[in-house]
Design a protein that fits this description.
Layout: H1 3-22, H2 38-49, H3 66-100
């Protein structure tokens, strides 16, 4: 493996393992969850500001835990990023192929001959 590739792999492993090792012994604050997102924080703020507020609708399906909800959000983000990356790659390749093809000259118009 090339040295540059080895450095990239080491950096990725470090960026993955270091945060997990750093928070291994820390417990979440009382009344909070590890993976509570901004939706939950917004709900809590709305209930604090307007306790009589009624939601407009309820979700069709509620995930079993906030970890699963976070996983589904990350999966959605990964699929979206994959789609955008695929589209970008196809666009760049299509442009490169069009640039590499020789430009076709239009056929010369035959001159009119009167008989």
């Amino acid at each position: 493996m090339k040295r540059s590739n080895l450095l990239i792999v080491a950096a990725l492993l470090g960026l993955t393992i270091l945060p997990l090792w750093w928070v291994a012994g820390i417990e979440p604050a009382a009344g909070t969850e590890w993976f509570a997102g901004s939706d939950r924080q917004a709900q809590d703020m709305i209930l604090a500001l307007a306790p009589a507020y009624l939601a407009w609708f309820e979700p069709l399906w509620q995930p079993a835990s906030s970890e699963i909800e976070s996983l589904l959000f990350a999966l959605q983000a990964a699929l979206g990023a994959g789609f955008i990356g695929y589209w970008f790659g196809v666009s760049v390749t299509r442009h490169a192929l069009r640039q590499s093809q020789p430009v076709r000259q239009p056929d010369p118009i035959p001159s009119r001959v009167d008989c």
